[in-house]
Design a protein that fits this description.
alpha/beta, TIM Barrel, globular, eight-stranded parallel beta sheet
C-alpha cells in the first residue's frame, strides 16, 4: 500500500492557476508546485482543496490537476488529493482517478449533503471504507463544529482506529471542540497525525500539541508559516508571537476576519500575484476577483511582511 511516511510539518493546499479564459494553466501550476516543494518545512502538497477552487472543477479537471502536480513533484515530495463527492460509487470513482493521476494519499471531505441533512456515524465509516478500497492512506478532513457535517469526538476516535486513516485535517473553528477532539484522537491512536487547518488563527491552533498544518494559506506564505511552526515546536513563544504579528495583517487581508470563502481564495491568489508567486491571479467564476480596496489591503500587508514584489 503506498503511504506517506511523514504527515508532520507544513502541507500547502495548492491554489490552481487559471488562464485569462479560465482554463487550467499547466505551466503555472507546475511552477507553483515546484516552488512549494523547495520551501523549507513543506513535506507534501495537497491538490483539489477549497483553496484550489475544487468546486469550480469538473471531476476530470480534478484528476488533471493532481496528474500535473504529481508529475512535477515526482521524486521530490508526495501529493495528497482531496475527494469531494456525494455518494459511495462516485467516491470510489474519484479515488481511483486520483490514484491513477499519481496521488499518494487522499483527503476525505464530508459529502456536502451532510451539511444540510447530517449523517449517522456508520455513514462516516462506510464512506471512508469505500474510498480506502483504492489502497491509499486517508486524511480525515474535519469541518467546523457549527456545520451538520462536523464529526463528534467519538466518531473521530473511531476513524483514528482505522488503519488506513493516517492523519486528521482539523478545522473545528471552536477551541473547546478542537481540544477535546485532539484528546480523543490521541487516546484512540497516538501515532495518527493531527494537522491544523485553521488558516485564520494559526498560532492559537498550533500550540495545542499537534503535528503541523495543512492549510491553503501555505500556498501563499509557506515560509512564514513554517517559521511560526518551528518557533512553536521550539517553545519560543515570543518569537512565535512576532511571526504571527507579520501573518495577522496578511490573514486579515485574505480572510477579512472570517473563515475561508471563495472570495477569500481569490484574494489569496491576488496576494500571491503581488508577492511574485504566480503571474496571473484569475479565479474561476462565479468567484470574483478582489476590489481595489482589498488589493490595497493586500499590498499593505505584504509590504509590512517584506514580501511585496509587484
Amino acid at each position: 500500500m503506498p503511504t506517506i511516511s511523514n504527515y508532520r510539518g507544513i502541507i500547502p493546499a495548492i491554489a490552481c492557476p487559471f488562464t485569462p479564459d479560465h482554463r487550467i494553466d499547466e505551466p503555472a501550476l507546475r511552477k507553483l508546485a515546484s516552488w512549494l516543494a523547495r520551501q523549507k518545512g513543506v513535506v507534501a502538497v495537497m491538490t483539489n482543496g477549497h483553496t484550489g477552487e475544487v468546486f469550480a472543477l469538473a471531476p476530470r479537471e480534478r484528476a488533471q490537476v493532481t496528474r500535473i502536480v504529481a508529475d512535477e513533484l515526482k521524486g521530490k515530495i508526495p501529493v495528497i488529493s482531496s475527494i469531494v463527492c456525494e455518494g459511495l460509487s462516485d467516491a470510489r470513482e474519484h479515488a481511483a482517478l486520483a490514484r491513477e493521476a499519481g496521488a499518494q494519499a487522499l483527503d476525505v471531505m464530508p459529502p456536502h449533503h451532510w451539511l444540510r441533512f447530517g449523517f449517522r456515524p456508520d455513514h462516516v465509516t462506510e464512506y471512508f471504507a469505500a474510498i480506502a478500497e483504492v489502497g491509499l492512506d486517508l486524511v480525515a478532513h474535519v469541518y467546523p463544529a457549527w456545520t451538520r457535517a462536523s464529526y463528534s469526538s467519538a466518531t473521530l476516535a473511531q476513524l483514528a482506529r482505522l488503519p488506513y486513516v493516517q492523519a486528521f485535517k482539523v478545522g473545528q473553528r471552536d477551541m473547546n471542540r478542537y481540544a477535546s477532539d485532539i484528546k480523543a484522537i490521541r487516546e484512540a491512536d497516538p501515532s495518527k497525525s493531527i494537522l491544523t487547518c485553521h488558516d485564520e488563527y494559526l498560532l492559537a491552533s498550533m500550540v495545542q500539541g499537534i503535528d503541523g498544518a495543512l492549510v491553503g494559506f501555505a500556498t501563499f506564505i509557506p515560509g512564514l508559516i513554517n517559521d511560526l511552526w518551528e518557533a512553536v515546536k521550539a517553545g519560543d513563544l515570543k518569537r512565535a508571537m512576532k511571526i504571527q504579528d507579520l501573518i495577522t495583517p496578511l490573514k486579515d487581508a485574505v480572510y477579512g476576519g472570517g473563515e475561508p470563502t471563495g472570495e477569500a481564495h481569490a484574494r489569496m491568489k491576488a496576494g500571491m500575484y503581488l508577492a511574485g508567486v504566480i503571474d496571473d491571479p484569475t479565479p474561476r467564476p462565479p468567484t470574483e476577483p478582489p476590489t481595489e480596496g482589498e488589493m490595497a489591503a493586500l499590498r499593505a500587508a505584504l509590504l509590512n511582511a517584506d514580501l511585496l514584489k509587484r
